[in-house]
Amino acid sequence: MDSYPLLDDLRLFGFVARQASFVAGAREAGVSQTLMSKRVALLERSLGVKLLRRTTRKVSLTDEGEKVLAWAQRILDDVEDMREDVARGAGDPQGPVRICASARLGREVVAPALSRLKQRYPAMEVWLELLDRRVDLVGESFHLDVRAGEVAEPHLIGHLIAENARILCAAPSYLLAHGSPALLAEVAKRDCVLLREREEPIGLWRMTGPAGTETVRASGSLASNDIDVVLRWAHDGHGIVMSSQWLLAPSLASGKLVRLLPQWQQSANIYAVSTTRSAQSAKVRLCVAALREVMASREVPAGPREPGSRRAKRR
Question: Are residues 285 and 259 in the same domain?
């Protein structure tokens, strides 16, 4: 069997396995469903095993499919490591780098950083996916997950991009009508505009201040998983909002929002999260450097870290 078709077929099989669908796998890979089905069938024929169980609604991995997927990931990673090692000797880095982030962080920070990176290193192939969920870096073949908040997974490495904190704000019109809360506990009795950020529990605001760490159960009749929608509602005076300093900075600078209880905040440093293996990649290190460069140019003041919080390993 020719090695190059085998590598391509293993890569295409990985798309189908991750998406549990030929349609979604073909869409992610950028090929037709017909080609995807043909190549996976040829891979099955070549290996002499059935890799997928096919139904009208989805596909699932057989026991042999699980084994082949694990081998495929190792083989493709080794091939990529070989390409990168050779590229180091030849000059500029080349080949694919896959990154994911939440929508606003991806648009405003990650996309500009990757644009600069591509201008400097044209041979790199960049894929950015904006997702409202935590990803499986290995299973979904991402090199980096850019996120706000401490890295709890012990098997992952957090590359610190910028210091950041979530803070409380409200519009002047809201404060004129309802007054400003004097204590953190009063926030629970106020109308709040709620934002769901990935797996963060909605409306459960854990903040650190002069009295240590306290939890406020915020409530309100307006909630969304889109920060632009939440900011619009907050600007319109519908309630108190909690979000990241870097994101709220323009609203605070323009006077559309006013910071409340400035002695209280929630640690939400921005990390580019990778596996231990990906952390050794020159492309990953360049991505991390570009992300730090973009965040530094924003000149967003960072608050102190939350005492006692778990810190990811910094690289």
Answer: no
Q: Decide if pLDDT at 1 tops 70.
A: no
DSSP codes of every residue in 132-184: SS---TTTTT-SEEEEES----TTEEEEEEE--EEEEEE-HHHHHHH---SSG
Q: Give me the number of domains the chain comprises.
A: 3
> The whole model's pTM is what?
0.72
Q: Which amino acid is present at 125?
A: E
Q: Does residue 129 come out as left (phi exceeding 0), alpha (psi in the -120 to 50 range) or beta?
A: beta
99 and 219, same structural domain?
no
| 175 burial type by CB count under 10 A (0-12 exposed, 13-18 middle, 19+ buried) | middle
Q: What is the pLDDT of residues 39-68, one digit of tens each?
A: 999 999 989 999 999 887 788 999 998 898
> Which backbone phi and psi does 38 adopt, to 5 degrees?
-65, -45
When pLDDT is cut at 50, 70 and 90, the band that residue 308 belongs to is: very low
Measure the CA–CA gap between 131 and 315, rounded to whole angstroms: 24
CA–CA dist 50, 151 (Å, integer)? 38
Q: Are 156 and 138 in contact (CB under 8 A)?
A: no
Task: Examine the domain organization and report whether 179 and 121 are in the same domain.
Answer: no
In DSSP terms, which residues pair with 68 in a beta bridge? Answer: none
